[in-house]
Structure formats: structure tokens, C-alpha cells
Amino acid sequence: xxxxxxxxxxxxxxxxxxxxxxxxxxxxxxxxxxxxxxxxxxxxxxxxxxxxxxxxxxxxxxxxxxxxxxxxxxxxxxxxxxxxxxxxxxxxxxxxxxxxxxxxxxxxxxxxxxxxxxxxxxxxxxxxxxxxxxxxxxxxxxxxxxxxxxxxxxxxxxxxxxxxxxxxxxxxxxxxxxxxxxxxxxxxxxxxxxxxxxxxxxxxxxxxxxxxxxxxxxxxxxxxxxxxxxxxxxxxxxxxxxxxxxxxxxxxxxxxxxxxxxxxxxxxxxxxxxxxxxxxxxxxxxxxxxxxxxxxxxxxxxxxxxxxxxxxxxxxxxxxxxxxxxxxxxxxxxxxxxxxxxxxxxxxxxxxxxxxxxxxxxxxxxxxxxxxxxxxxxxxxxxxxxxxxxxxxxxxxxxxxxxxxxxxxxxxxxxxxxxxxxxxxxxxxxxxxxxxxxxxxxxxxxxxxxxxxxxxxxxxxxxxxxxx
Length: 468
What we know:
This protein is α/β, with parallel strands linked by helices. It has helices spanning 14-24, 37-46, 63-73, 88-96, 109-121, 147-159, 176-185, 204-212, 229-232, 248-260, 286-291, 297-303, 320-334, 344-352, 358-372, 385-388, 390-398, 404-414, 419-438, 443-450, 454-464, and strands at residues 6-10, 30-34, 51-55, 57-58, 61-62, 79-83, 101-104, 166-169, 194-198, 237-241, 262-263, 272-273, 277-282, 306-309, 341-342, 377-378. Mean pLDDT is 84; it is low at 122-140. Helix 1 (14-24) links the parallel strand 1 (6-10) and strand 2. The strands form five sheets. Strands 2-1-3-6-7 form a five-stranded parallel β-sheet, sandwiched between helices. It has a five-stranded parallel β-sheet with strand order 9-10-13-8-14. A two-stranded antiparallel sheet has the order 4-5. The chain is built from 21 helices and 16 strands. The protein folds into four domains: 6-149, Rossmann fold (3-Layer(aba) Sandwich); 162-311, P-loop containing nucleotide triphosphate hydrolases (Rossmann fold), CATH 3.40.50; 313-380, Orthogonal Bundle (Helicase, Ruva Protein, domain 3); 389-468, Arc Repressor Mutant, subunit A.
């Protein structure tokens, strides 16, 4: 790092400026600071600045607006945005507007040093800015400030500027469609339609028609022309959820669309062009499917140029309480005469649960609790059984004695209330989970083995929070 590189810090908090200056120590960067956007812009214009760190909220402007002006003047200078308000909207808008990185206050000084090192060493590789959104008031509904989600926000900001396909990976319920919609809202196609289709919910025989359309008379029942999703999404974004369920034949047509952006309707001879940007998602391991001959390797290579891995809720430390607050607020806005709040003991139980169904399961659990609570404050007994008994069942099964008799004795010795209900819940949950795992998620087979109806099995899975 050369001796003459200069860092500009713009923040109205003198303590933050002091902390950053002190953290640099004998760093080879020289240091200048400003307490307002106007002062910072003046220094940026009249001095040779090699890197900028600025706060989102300034007394005379916003950090995003200041960054835009700086980028218009010197687009190659890396700018790091920091804020105490870790909303997804701010992160995505900052990265989408050309920020080098985004940091949440209180800033980790070690991380800051790493960012400074990367920015000053990689100055030539800073991405060019794009036109920002004029209205970002409702850009998305993401909630969470954990580091895994901050990484997702940064990737959305970067990838939304591109025209290449994006592949979103993650377990069921992690927010893959929300990520796809956010990419669309920040893309150059944002004024076009966002068309979503779940490849797993449509029979294989109909999926091709849904995607590409068909001509009248092309097959039995085709009594009129149908416009497919790719035509509907022209100059917009098409979101292909559960793309791992797509047939091999349809995958071949997908490959051509990605390569040439052209296709024909079923039974048609006219080649149609589409300007739709493709965003796909799956909860399956496509690489393993390629090895098993169930998915085209060449399609995977085309799709995973830009990849986003959505983190499971169990890895998003600190986000559960924020999500609960959001879901409670949504319930209260829809039910003004039956407003609810969550008791701290209930929140503590929600934090301990493993959430195999991720954010979607948490949302359903909060809704269930709000509806079933007899009091304005949601107590632990109003939570789903899978949540309220999770810690207890985990401990019992972890210390399970070798014989049934010992297991029952151990359970009786450690409980003095609602023993029957608790015992049945612990054993039934473990039994259903094992049977479903044994049947590879096939609920028809699982219900036959258990000797119960499929409807009963579904209800019990919902109550215990068991997913396929």
C-alpha cells in the first residue's frame, strides 16, 4: 500500500470518527474527516481521495445521496457505507448503487481493517454504478441483521445489476422467492413484470405449455392459443421455483432459452424472442442430481453463474425476535380488535427451537399462537407443541435409556405434571419423524406404515413442525 493514499470518513458522530482514526494506528493511509455531507463532498472534490467511509444518516443529506454524487464525480473511488439501521433496503440500495461494501454499526474494527485493505488493493476492480431506484419505500420485506443475511443483501445488490441468470439455493421456507423479487425490483427490468412459477406444483405434462405456451390444436384439449410464462415475463423477470423438479426434456428447452433467448410455442413454427431475465431456485442438490442423471450438467453450469445461498433460520443468530415482531405486527394490523404481543418466555422458547421449516414455519407458528391465545399476551402454552416441548423432547431423547421400561421410568421421575400428554407428544413426534425419513418424505407410504390417514399425518406434522 503506497504512502500517499488518503481515506475520507464522513459521519456526524465525532466518536465514530475518532474510533476509526485510532483503529488505523500506523496504517499507511492518511486520514481526513467531515461531519456533514456538504463538507465531505467538498473534501472529495478538492483533495485526492482514495477511499471513502460514510454514514447513511447525515444532518444535511443521506449517505446514499452523497455516494451517488461522489460516484458521478469519481466513479473509481471505493465507498464503504455504514449505518446503525441494518435494514435490507439500505444494504441492497447501497451495494446496488455501487458501494464497495456495507457495514453495520457498531463497526467491527477488525472487519473494517480488512475492508480498507481490500478496497485500497482492489481499487481498479470497483464496480461501476447503475441508476438507482427512484422509489424504494416497499422494496422488500426482508427482516434480519445477522451476518448471513447481510451477505445475502450484498449479493442481491450486486446481481441485480447484471442480466445473467441467478440461481438461489436454500432449504424450504428460507425466502428464496423474496430474494428473487428483490433482484427484480433492483434490476433494469424492474418496470417489467415479475412472473413466478413453481415447477413442482404443475404436472410434468403441463409444465412445458405453462412455460412456453402452445398453439391452438397442438394437442388434445388445446382449443385456443396459450401465451406462456416466458412471453408474459418479456422485459421483466421470470422466477422458476423448484427448478430441480423440471423434466429432462423441458431442461433442454431451458438451455436454449438461456443461450439464445428464443423458443417456439408447442405446436408452433414461429421463433419467439424474450427479454425475460431468469432467476431460478431449488432446495435440492443439483450437482448430485447431475451425477444421478436426473439433471442436465450443462444447464447447471448455465444457471449457477451467479448463486445466492439463503441461510437456514437456525444459522441466523439474533433474527428470530425481529421476525416475531414483524409477524405480530402484521397480525395486529389485520386484526385491530385482537392485537397480540409475545411474552418474553415465549420468545425464549421460539429462539431455542430448531425451525426445520425455517422462516415460513416461524411465521405459521406465530400466526397459530396469535389466533389460539386466549389473552393479549401470548404465553408459552399457546405456542405449537413442537415449540413448547422441543427442549424437553430433545433432552429426553438425548438421554434415552436403552429399554422401554427404563425410558418410561426416567420420564416419570423427571415430570410431575401432564405426564401422559408430554410422553405421547415426545414419542409420537420422534416416531413420525423417523417414519417420514425412512420413507424419504413420501407421506402416502408413511401414513400406510403408521396406520393413519394422510390427512391425520399432515395435521400431526404441522403440529410438531415436521417437514419432509
